[in-house]
Amino acid sequence: MSSNQTSPTTPAVLRFFGVDNSADKRGALYIFVLLAALLVTPIVVGNDFVYHVFITICLFAGLSTAWNIVGGYAGQLSLGHAMYYGIGAYTGMILVNAGITPWIGMFVGAAVSAVVAALIAYPCFRLKGPFYALASIAFLEVFHVLAIEMKWLTGGATGKMIPLQVGWEWMIFQDRLPSLLIAFGMLCFVLAIAQVIRHRRMGFYLIATRERESAAKAAGIPTVKVRIYAAAMSGALVSMLGTFHAMYLTFIEPDSAFDLIFSIQIVLFALVGGIGTVFGPLLGAILLVPITEISRGLLGASALGLHGFVYGVILMLVVVFMPDGVVSLLPKRARKALDPEQFDDTTGQPIGDTELDAPQLDPIQTKARPPLGDEVLKVDDLVKNFGGLKVTQHVNISLRQGEVLGIIGPNGAGKTTLFNMLSGFLEADSGSVVVMGPDGKPHTPKGVADFVSLGVGRTFQIVQPFAAMTVEENIMVGAFYHHPDVDSARRVAGEIATELGLGRFLHEEAKNLPIGGLKRLEVARVMAMRPRILLLDEVMAGINPSDLVEAIRLIKAIRDTGVSIIAIEHVMRAIMDLSDRVIVINSGAVISEGDPESVVRDEAVIEAYLGKEAGNAEA
Amino acid sequence: MDLIFTNLVNGLMLGALYAIVSVGLTLVFGIVKVINFAHGEFLMVAMFLVFFATAYFGVHPYVTLVVVLPLIFGLGMLVQRVLIEPLQDSDEHIMIFATVGLSIAMINLMLMLFGPDIYSTPSSGLRTVVDMGPAMFLTGQLNILIAAIALVGGIHLFLTRTQLGRAIRATGQNRAAAQLMGINVSWVYMVTFGIGVSCVGLAAVLIAPLYPTSPEVGQYFVLLSFVVVVMGGLGSISGALLAAMIIGIVDAFAGFYLGANVKDLVVFGIFLLVLIFRPQGLFGGARNMSHVS
Amino acid sequence: MLKLNNVTAGYGSTTILHGISLDVNEGEIVTIVGGNGAGKSTTLRTISSLINPTSGSIEFEGRDITKMAAHKVVELGITMVPEARQLFPEMTVLENLQMGSFTKVARPRYKEKLDEVLTLFPRVAERLSQEAQSLSGGEQQMVAIARGMMSCPKLMLFDEPSLGLAPIVVTQVFDVVKKIAASGTTVLIVEQNVFQTLQIADRGYVIENGEISMNGPAQELMGNDHIRKAYLGI
C-alpha cells in the first residue's frame, strides 16, 4: 500500500482495515461488490437450493478464511481444523439441549476452542510443515474418539438431533433467508478480523515468524505468543461457524463433525484461492462450492465418492499448475488491490542483480567519532559444551560503549556459538553475561526476549530476508519493537533504509536483493530496533571488495552514533580497519587479545589461523 | 498369563505388519523428502489387486505377488514422475497437499468403482490357528513376521552394499552433489518411490487373506505407520522396525483390554507425546531434526 | 576443449547470465573472477547442467552439451567440486569417494584412482571410515576435491573452493589445485579470492553483471588498473 500516496481523505473506518490509498479503495470496492453478490443473488433467485449453495459458500469461505490465519499467515498447516468446527457444533448442541440459546453457545464454544487451540499450539509451535499437519490430524482423531466415547455428553457414535425450536433465538428457521443472513454476517465478521490482523503488527509478526523464526525472535517478536494468539483466534472463529452449521443441519455425529476430509476441504478452498492472502479463501469457496454442491444435488447418492474424487483431483491439479491459487491469475492491478501487502513490488518484475548490484547502493554518510564510554557488556568465564565437544572454554569479554570488538578465528572455533550465548539463543553451561541496561544498572538477561529488551541486536551469518515481504516491511518488523503502530513503524523503516543506502529499494521484494543488499537489510532490520549493542556475524562475507569499503563506512557510522559493536569476521581488511580491539578464538578458547596490529603479529594466531603468508593475504 | 503371552505374540506380529508398511514410508521420506500421505492408499489399491487376482485366476494370494509388485512399483514410479517430481522444489505445504489430494482421489475413485463394500480375499489356509503352548496365532501372521525381518534386512543390505543403494542414500543426503557424481537423480527418486510403495505391495499380499479389503482400509494403516515412522526417527529403517514392534504390542494390549476406540486414543496419545517431546524419534540422537526448527 | 557461445541462463524468471562466451583449452588453468552475484557460480552450474541455458550453446570436446542432463555431463569427463563442499554428510569418507567413481567410465578405474587421491591427501586416508560430517571444514574441502578426482575428469570445475576456510587452509587448497592441473587435468576455477587465484591461473575472465567484461592472461589481469581497484582493493 505504501507504493501509493496515502490519501488524507480516507475515512477512519477504512483506515482501520488497512485501506488507506486509492489502490486499497479499489480493492475494497471489488470485495464489496463480491460480497453483495453473495447476499443478493439467492434473495433474487429465491430458490431453496440456491439459498443452500450460497449459505454453504459463506460457511466454507468463513471457515477457510479463519483457517488461513494459522495456515496462511502463521504458515502452520493444520489438517485438524474440523476439531474446532466439531467443538463449536457440539458445544452449541449440548447447550441448546440444556435450554441455552446458540447465540450464547457460539461464544462458549469459541472460548473452549480458543483454549484448546492454545493448549495445542503451545507444545506444537516448533513442528514444521508435515509434522504440524500430522500432529493436527492426531489431535483431530483424539477428539473424534472422545466424541464417540463420551456418550453421556455427546450421544456417542450415532450422533444427536438438535431440538427443532424454530425462531431467531434458536437459530433454526422455516425459511432459508435468516440462515443466509447469519452465515453472511459471520463471513463478513471473519473477513474483517482476518484483514485487520493481516495489516496490523500482528500480521507482520506472524509472517516474519513463518518466514524465519530465529530472525523474528532476534527482532523481539514473542514468536510463541503470536502463534498461540493466531491459533486461538482461528480456532474460535471456526468454532463459531461450527455452532451455526450444527443449528443449520439440526443433526450432528462424530464422523461428520470431526472429519479429516472436512478439514481438508477447508484447506482446499484456501489453497485454490491463494494461501496467505486475505481474500483468497473467499474466492476459492465461491469457485468450488457451487461445482460440488450442484454435482451432489444432481447426482445424489448414485455418485458415491464423486465429489471426493473431484476434490482430490483439483487439489493435485492446483498444486501442480497453480500453486499460488486463483489470486495469482487475476490481473496485476486487481491482485494488488485485493492484497497490496502481498504484491507490493512496483516493477512487477523480479529485479536481477544487474539493476541492483552493490556499487549502486547509495553511499553512507559518516560523522565524527565520539570518545569511548563505560563498559556495556561483560562476559565472565563463559563455558559451553555440546556433548563432549568443548565449544566455548572460559571466555571473558568486556565491551565499552562505542567500541568495536573484532572476533576472528578458524571455522568451527566457536564464534557463532559465542554469539548465540551473547544474544540469548543458547544458554551457557556456566559463567555469566552481564549487560548494562539503559537504566545504568547491570542485568543478567536470560533468553532472547531479555537480551532484546536490554538493547542487544544481532545479525545472522546466513542472511535470508523475510522473503514474502518488501525491504520496507522487513525493516518494519524490527521497527515495531519500539513503534507498535503501523504508520510510525513504516516511517522509521523509511528513515533507516535511507540511512543505510537502501532507500530506493524500499518497495522491492527483499528476496530480489543481491547479497550486498541483503547484508545491509539484515543490519537495517536490527538498527530499526535501536540496539545499544550490535552483534554482527560475518556481515562482510561474500560481498564485493569495492562494496566492502562502503560496508566498513556503514559500520563506522553506526559506531559513531554510540552503539557498541562486536563483529565476527573472516575479512581481515575489515577487521583491521574497524576494530578497536581484536579477540582470536581457537577451539573455543581465547588465544590472543589486543589491538589489531599486535594480534596479527602474535605467533599463536599466525599458527592457528592466518598462515605464514598472512602478510599479503587478501582474504 | 496365557492371555498376556498371546497378546504379546499378537502384538509382535501386528508390529511386523506395521514395520513392512512403515519401512516404505520412512524410505521415501528419507530419500525423496516427501511425507506420502497417500501411502496407505497404495496398500488399499494393492489389496484390491490381490483380491481380484485371486478371484479371477483362483491362485493362492501369495502367488499374486508376481503381478502386484510390478504393478505397484510402476504406479509408484508414475506418481513420482507425474506428481512429485514437478513439485520437488516447491514449498513444503505444496507437497503435503499433493499427496493428500492423491490420497483423497484414490480412496474416492475406488469408492466410485467398487462402492463402500468389504471384499474378502480367500484365506487359503492362512487363517489356520497355530497353537504353540501358551501362544496362539495364525500361520498368515507368522509369515508376516518372517517377511518383515527379511524385508528390513534386505533393504539394509541393499542400501549399504550395492552401488544403486549407495546412490539412493547419496541422493537423499545431497541431491545436487549426487547429480555431480553422475547419478541420475530423477531416476533414483522414481526407483525409491517405487521401492517404498512396493513395501505396501508386499504388505497387501500378506494381509489381504487376513483382513477385509475396502476403499478405506489404507487410512487406518497409514495413520499407524506415521506413528511408527515418527517414533523410529524419520528416515531410519531400523528405528521404524523397533517402533513398529512397540506400537504393535501397545496396539494388541490396548485393543484387548481397553477396546478399539480407546486403543486409538492410546496410540495417538503416544504419537503426540513423541512428536512434541522426542521429534527426532525415540532411538536417534539429535539427527534427522530437519522437521523441527 | 570447452566452449561457451553466448550463453544466457538464470533461475526462474531471473536472468543472471546475459550472453557469456568463453573457452578453456586442454591443460590450462582458467579462472573466472568477479563480485558476488556477478554470475560466476551460475556459469559453472550451467556448464555442469545443474541449470539449463535459456539460449546459447555449450560445447565440450566438440560435442554439444547444452541440453544434456547433469549426470551425462559427468560421464563425458566434466566434474564440478561444488561450493561449500556438498559432501554426503552421513556417509563415510570412503563411501563419499566411492560415489565419486559412480559413472561407468570411472568405476573400472576405482582402485587406481583411490590410491592416487589417498597419496595426494594423506589426511583423507586417515579418516576413511569416519562420517563426512564429523570432519573439519578444511578436511571436508579436501574430501570434496578427492571425490571429484575419483570420476576421472578431463575438466574439473571448482566453485569457490576457498569460501569459508581459514587463510592457512586456503593456501593448501590452492596448492592442491595446482597439483591437479600439473597432473594433466584441465581446471576452470571460480573465486572471489581474486589475488591468489590469478597467481595460479594461466588465463582469466572477469565477469560483471552476468557479462564477460574482460579477459586475458592472468598476469595481465593482475596488472590491470580496474581489476586492482575493484577486486584487489589496491
TrEMBL record, chain A:
* Entry superkingdom: Bacteria
CDD domains named among the record's database cross-references? ABC_Mj1267_LivG_branched, TM_PBP1_LivM_like
Record's InterPro entries? AAA+_ATPase, ABC_AA/LPS_Transport, ABC_transp_permease, ABC_transporter-like_ATP-bd, BCA_ABC_TP_C, LivM-like, P-loop_NTPase
Q: Which GO terms describe its cellular component?
A: plasma membrane
- Entry's localization field: Cell inner membrane
- Domain ABC transporter per the UniProt entry, residue ranges: 377-612
Q: How does it sit in the membrane?
A: Multi-pass membrane protein
Q: Which UniProt keywords apply?
A: ATP-binding, Cell membrane, Membrane, Nucleotide-binding, Transmembrane, Transmembrane helix, Transport
Where are the annotated segments for Disordered? 341-369
Q: What is its main location?
A: membrane
- GO biological process terms on file: D-alanine transmembrane transport; L-alanine transport; L-isoleucine import across plasma membrane; L-valine import across plasma membrane
| SUPFAM superfamilies, sorted | P-loop containing nucleoside triphosphate hydrolases (SSF52540)
Any stretches that span the bilayer, and where are they? 27-45, 51-70, 82-100, 106-125, 132-153, 177-197, 228-248, 260-289, 301-322
Molecular-function annotations in GO: ATP binding; ATP hydrolysis activity; L-isoleucine transmembrane transporter activity; L-phenylalanine transmembrane transporter activity; L-valine transmembrane transporter activity
Task: Name the chain's protein.
Answer: ATP-binding cassette domain-containing protein
Per the UniProt record, the lineage of the source organism begins with: Bacteria, Pseudomonadati, Pseudomonadota, Gammaproteobacteria, Chromatiales
UniProtKB/TrEMBL annotation, chain B:
GO MF? transmembrane transporter activity
| Membrane topology category | Multi-pass membrane protein
Tell me, in one coarse class, where this protein mainly resides: membrane
Parts of the chain that traverse the membrane? 12-35, 42-59, 65-84, 96-115, 135-159, 187-211, 217-234, 265-286
Q: Which organism is it from?
A: Spiribacter salilacus
Describe the family membership recorded for this protein in Swiss-Prot or TrEMBL: Belongs to the binding-protein-dependent transport system permease family. LivHM subfamily.
Keyword Zinc in record:
no
Recorded protein name is Branched-chain amino acid ABC transporter permease
Q: Where in the cell is it found?
A: Cell inner membrane
Query: Gene Ontology terms, cellular component aspect?
Result: plasma membrane
Q: Can you tell which superkingdom this protein's organism belongs to?
A: Bacteria
Q: Biological process GO terms, please?
A: amino acid transport
Q: Which UniProt keywords apply?
A: Amino-acid transport, Cell membrane, Membrane, Transmembrane, Transmembrane helix, Transport
UniProtKB/TrEMBL annotation, chain C:
Q: Which Gene3D superfamilies match?
A: P-loop containing nucleotide triphosphate hydrolases
Q: Which PROSITE patterns match?
A: ABC_TRANSPORTER_1, ABC_TRANSPORTER_2
Q: Per the database record, which ranges form the ABC transporter domain?
A: 2-234
Keyword Protease: yes or no?
no
One MF annotation (Gene Ontology) recorded for this entry: ATP binding
Which SUPFAM superfamilies does the protein's record reference? Answer: P-loop containing nucleoside triphosphate hydrolases (SSF52540)
What is the protein's given name?
A: ATP-binding cassette domain-containing protein
- Organism whose genome encodes this protein: Spiribacter salilacus
